[in-house]
């Protein structure tokens, strides 16, 4: 999925904003969950994007770890960009290795899409609005007002991560997918 999103996302207007066919997504998810072979290259890139966001939403405890939720939410309240980057890097070090690897690929894709935002209309802000709710969600005891504030803060964090991904994850993030 990430490879397809990396290849087609930058040239697709509204990637992650537009939803794929709900029926197709449901059918493909069932096939994927059963272990069947699925050729996503034959499907709409919007279906792949929708499936990927669904995959992220179903990671137990979220990819950014619900246990670190308060720390993630407070990152953007810290001093200058250097301090924010250092705080983010410390939080990333606390995540399981699999989460870190997946995050690097996710932000490699988002960075590639953002670099062509004039073509696809998906700058870091727009990407964050679409992706942030799939990366970390508020505690279940939250009120609607708390959820709204939480979503704004996480979106701001994801925008910052996207804009600064090379400094946070390293310059090699640009070559994670090799010469596809």
UniProtKB/TrEMBL annotation:
It holds the Pfam family RhoGAP. GO terms for biological process: regulation of Rho protein signal transduction; signal transduction. This is RHG20 protein. It comes from Penelope pileata. CDD domains: RhoGAP_ARHGAP20. Keywords: GTPase activation, Phosphoprotein. The lineage of its organism: Eukaryota, Metazoa, Chordata, Craniata, Vertebrata. Residues 1-169 form the Rho-GAP domain. It comes from the Eukaryota. One of its GO terms (molecular function) is GTPase activator activity. SUPFAM superfamilies: GTPase activation domain, GAP (SSF48350).
């Amino acid at each position: 999925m990430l490879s397809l999103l990396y290849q087609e996302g930058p040239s697709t207007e509204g990637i992650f904003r537009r939803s794929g066919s709900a029926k197709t997504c449901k059918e493909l998810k069932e096939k994927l969950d059963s272990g069947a072979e699925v050729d996503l290259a034959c499907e709409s890139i919007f279906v792949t994007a929708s499936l990927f966001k669904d995959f992220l939403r179903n990671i137990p405890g979220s990819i950014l770890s619900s246990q670190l939720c308060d720390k993630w939410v407070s990152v953007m309240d810290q001093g200058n960009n250097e301090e924010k980057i250092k705080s983010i890097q410390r939080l990333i070090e606390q995540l399981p290795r699999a989460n870190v690897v997946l995050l690097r690929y996710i932000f490699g894709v988002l960075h590639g899409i953002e670099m062509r935002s004039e073509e696809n209309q998906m700058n870091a802000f727009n990407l964050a609005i679409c992706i942030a709710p799939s990366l970390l969600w508020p505690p279940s005891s939250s009120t609607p007002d708390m959820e709204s504030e939480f979503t704004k803060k996480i979106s701001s964090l994801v925008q910052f991560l996207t804009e600064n991904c090379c400094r946070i994850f390293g310059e090699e993030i640009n070559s994670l997918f090799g010469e596809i």
